[in-house]
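Objective 1b: paired records.
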Amino acid sequence: MAHNGRWALILGASSGFGAAAARALATEGFGILGVHLDRRSGMPAVDALCADLLALGVPVRFFNANAASADTRATVLDAMPALMGDAPVGVLLHSLAFGTLRPFVPPPDSGAAVSTSRNVDMTLDVMAHSLVYWVQDLVTAGRLGRGGRVFAMTSGGSRQVFPSYGPVSAAKAALESHVRQLALELAPRGCTVNAILAGVTDTAALRKIPGNDEIREKARLRNPHGRLTTPEDVAACLVTLSGPGTHWLTGNVLQVDGGETVCA
């Protein structure tokens, strides 16, 4: 499909939900700006993703940099005129999964490392606060406005507890709060903001959580479809949610889980 003139900016674009969203949106004609942070060993997969997106006939530019950095935001925004002309960002997806998985207080006699103030601050900055800073800079630059769609990937950890998940849980709760506040403040600009709460999905980020085998199996058993959610399930919903008919849908946590939660 040829480029439809709309652009998607995906934070965390190289794998999981971000990569699936890039493919789905590019299939619908969106140009793709991706920000990711990968070591050299991960670059072949990133290069393959970019090649697939370009083969769909849309413009693509990826930045291998820390999406939570002010310098990265400046670099991406500075590159936009040459890439996009005056076009705005039609879809912003915040899908950053980088945080500390350590307990606040370790089990007795475990000798486990605990979450320090630096760990907690970093986790909240990357997984929650960076959404606010990207929106601020995009609005200031005139790149986000009427018709824009902002999505942030949250998780059940915003309400539930898991071993060693405290910093990430706090970040997800903060992220949902930021979504509500941004929905209020961007409404006069005609831009919607929603959080996406996917069902349990077998991603690299999930596999870093202690006890993830049990989490996945329990989710599979209670999901009425008899399987886990996939990144492609979520990406397909994001494409629909990015359309003009969702202009009155904002400030929500949208469960995209195949009924997993209602069967808990």
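Objective 1b, second protein:
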Amino acid sequence: MNWILIALLAPLLFSISAFIDRFLVSKYFKSGFGALVVYTGLLGLPVFVLIYLFKPEVVQVGLISALLMIINSFLVIGYLFPYYAAIRKTDVSAVIPLFQIIPVFSFILAFFILKETLTWPQIGAGSLIVVGAVGISLNFKEKIELKKGLLGLMLLAALMISLNRTVFKFFAINLDFWTVSFWEYLGFFVFAVLLLLCSKKFRSEFVNSFRENKNTIIGLNAVNEMVNLTATIIATLLAPLALVSAVSGLAPVFVFIFGIILSLFWPKIIKEDLSWQTIVQKVVFIVIIFIGGYLLNSAWG
């Protein structure tokens, strides 16, 4: 079995998912994306039901553990708010590389929560990622300045995901992937229901979007969640972890390539900035981020 090709599927699928997100946000949720978060959360219902049918013993956990796992899931669906705001502001190929900050946060959180140690090679590699993240967030066209809100939004999104993954790992040590996943997807559904109950604005957006484009939105969201779940399963269960870690930094490269192809051939779907200054900027700082990510994974090993 060619493990390299299987491992490459994870960043490839995550990249495809990013463009589905951008398409949904820009075409169907121009006035607000709270309803899109609701759709994503509601899709947790069939997933946690299927997990239960496949493995009913997933419910055999303590009440406190179950509540903590559900609350932890709020982080990984709540990150969609800053993430959607970021991909609305700028190119997908400028946003996705910033997710490479997640391992940096994860190392810091693991140091404090899981009592894991940090080495100087890890710190140096993490610093490279931060340099690349700041660089890709800069606007060089007029005067050198940070693209408005981009870095802050993605730092918040990356921190929320890192917190979620750290807690997920904490529970997975004593439980298993499918048990923790069951409670996480249940948490998605609970989060969506809470949004509908507590926010009149989100409820109105959801009802209106459902009336106008329910088939397209539900279909694209379902495909998107399947793409994400498949990528997650590949990254955590199928391919060797060391190999997945080594190629995970290629997601920004795939996004960059897809962005150029879509902008050239299907600009009505996705249109990114293809000016030479922007392309050079993205290439340089994506390479820096990739090197930092590769070194960080090597230092972890």
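The CA atoms of residues 109 and 115 lie 9 Å apart. The chain has one domain: 3-300.
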